What we know:
heterodimer, A: mainly beta, seven-stranded mixed β-sheet, four-stranded antiparallel β-sheet, B: mainly beta, 9 strands, globular
Amino acid sequence: SQTIHQWPATLVQPVGSPLSLECTVEGTSNPNLYWYRQAAGRGLQLLFYSVGIGQISSEVPQNLSASRPQDRQFILSSKKLLLSDSGFYLCAWAHLTRGNTIYFGEGSWLTVV
Amino acid sequence: DAKTTQPPSMDCAEGRAANLPCNHSTISGNEYVYWYRQIHSQGPQYIIHGLKNNETNEMASLIITEDRKSSTLILPHATLRDTAVYYCIVSGYGNNRLAFGKGNQVVVIP
């Protein structure tokens, strides 16, 4: 069976510090990978998606970036965090053989102080 | 992708069927209706999806009107653990990006 893991689960970072959230998927190959963000009291916002190694599409301009160094690894990064980067970050995967069914990780709570 | 309209919130009685409506009047012929739910502080969970026919699985039933302009998600016997935000999404099959709106905050009341 397929599983998805992301870490860390929670972190508190000062403004201007770097960020790295990591996500890995097991039990499938060549998945589509996604990073979503959910600010407090708001809906899910798609940040990045990837259809393959090194292929990243950005949905919204921001000071975040994503990378996919391996088939089942997806990393969300920032060089300098802003207060507005606080939120609940979710990694997700999907596979064309399963249509649009998206499977989400446990989420990472980021508080920028 | 077509947009959807859901009530912002609703209450349901524990043990009773919960009927969650969704309007998608601009849905196109090749777009599916998907339902997800998000329990507080967790990632969204896939529930069910359909194109034209009604669908049922171990979690819920999906009723799609004949003109496909609206649908209803039915939780047959609501429990307190069903309290969550429910998202109705329409999207073409194989579309890489699903747009989650604000959803419907469903509260199951004892």
